[in-house]
């Protein structure tokens, strides 16, 4: 397995031609793809993907597995996914700790009730997924706009319980922590304290849209805001420096315009390394 | 039903049919999901059917999308399958305009050929470009693996904004849509007989077998009489990369 390090970029079809023609900028250490958007696509898109796979490590971040859904797990999709990951030697796979289907797909990520029944349900599905894929997977904390009813615990406790019971890893999205802290009015720094940060494999950061004072929509359509940079720097400093990826999925600018943010991730990582190594 | 199923079915139902937010959820927040889910779904549909949506008009098209979302079940986890699910749903609608499904199918062919997983270059490397020893009966014809067929009772390729919608005129309009070795999607207009021939060849047939099957559909012809025309046609189709070549048939072990 190729160990992840440094800063990554969520790969978009819009960037393929530039990256293949001009080469991958040094600042981009790894790429991430949503397997659902690549696994059944041939032609030029597949050819470009193969070119880039030879140049950088890749991670896969799923959208449609509906790990928290109550429709039966889509086994045929799971086997296709396993084949895709194996064919392209993509070791790291994560999914959202949410659900996206009920008697058919809704193609969006919806909030789960945080309670013991759901912990058990999700954990057993994660175990099945890990068995079929033949690898540990990670779950990502998801951004939400409403709280599901029937919750008996807070989100960090829920995340911890699922991750411990399923014995899987945590894919921590720093922007989602911030988005939820506004949407549900909590302290994001205290939230981080409660997470099983020893299970983190890599981080996400992204921009969002502030619709009102107390509502943030997680668009991935703008630059990362200062509050999220602060939270990321804080995370590196207190919990360790992890590979970190920038997601940009709407209003997509040229790759060159995203490099400032990629460099900033690196600078924060470097500075945290220095600080952490100074500690006796 | 478990409480989780109960919750998810109620949320999904309210999102699909626009009903009241369940479980006393705050409508303003639930509305964010209504908007995100519908806009996401319709963006995939809009992208695939630019002419059909424009000709139907914004209001009617949106109404159709809403109805699709309410009534259909999308079972594919892949976003690229949303337009096909929509297309199949439209086909079953009894009240649709007669032209709508034909035009949408024609538009969808482009997406189907563009995303097709087959590797055209790879197939081309594995075939012979000519039949050896006049092996009409033993070699099979290799079509472009991305090839899609369309056959419509109206000239779907002439539909455009600002023009009256052409009626069915008693003729059939055939189309071949495929991806080239340079990854471009091409549309070729063909007659119904060419289309039938290629459909026979698609199922692993030799030139001779395809001529036999075609002769059964065309009164007054025989496989013998069709053979020279077919060979000439295949030569032309090869130049366009619709046919890629010939391959010696591998007999299944008995």
Can you walk through the features of this model?
- The complex is a heterodimer of chains A (280) and B (254).
- With 280 residues, chain A is α/β, with parallel strands linked by helices.
- Chain A has nine helices and twelve strands.
- Chain A has an eight-stranded parallel barrel with strand order 1-2-3-4-7-8-9-12. In chain A, strands 5-6 form a two-stranded antiparallel sheet.
- In chain A, a hairpin with a 2-residue loop joins β10 and β11 (215-217).
- In chain A, α1 crosses α2 (43-53), α4 crosses α5 (155-166) and α8 packs parallel to α9.
- The radius of gyration of chain A is 18 Å and the shape is globular.
- The relative contact order of chain A is 0.13.
- By secondary structure, chain B is mainly alpha-helical.
- In chain B, 51% of the residues lie in helices and 11% in strands.
- The radius of gyration of chain B is 23 Å and the shape is elongated.
- The relative contact order of chain B is 0.10.
- The model of chain B has no long low-confidence stretch (mean pLDDT 94).
- The chains are: A alpha/beta (280), B mainly alpha (254).
Secondary-structure map:
The complex is a heterodimer of chains A (280) and B (254).
Chain A: E1 7-10, H1 16-22, E2 30-33, H2 43-53, E3 58-61, H3 75-87, E4 93-96, E5 99-101, E6 105-110, H4 116-133, E7 138-140, H5 155-166, E8 169-173, H6 174-184, H7 188-194, E9 200-206, E10 209-212, E11 215-217, H8 226-239, E12 244-247, H9 255-278
Parallel strand pairs in A: 1-2, 1-12, 2-3, 3-4, 4-7, 7-8, 8-9, 9-12
Antiparallel strand pairs in A: 5-6, 10-11
Helix pairs in contact in A: 1-2, 4-5, 8-9
Chain B: H1 3-17, H2 27-48, H3 50-56, H4 58-71, H5 82-91, H6 100-115, H7 120-125, E1 139-143, E2 148-152, E3 173-179, E4 185-190, H8 192-202, H9 207-217, H10 223-239, E5 243-248
Antiparallel strand pairs in B: 1-5, 2-3, 3-4
Helix pairs in contact in B: 1-4, 2-4, 3-6, 5-6, 8-9, 9-10
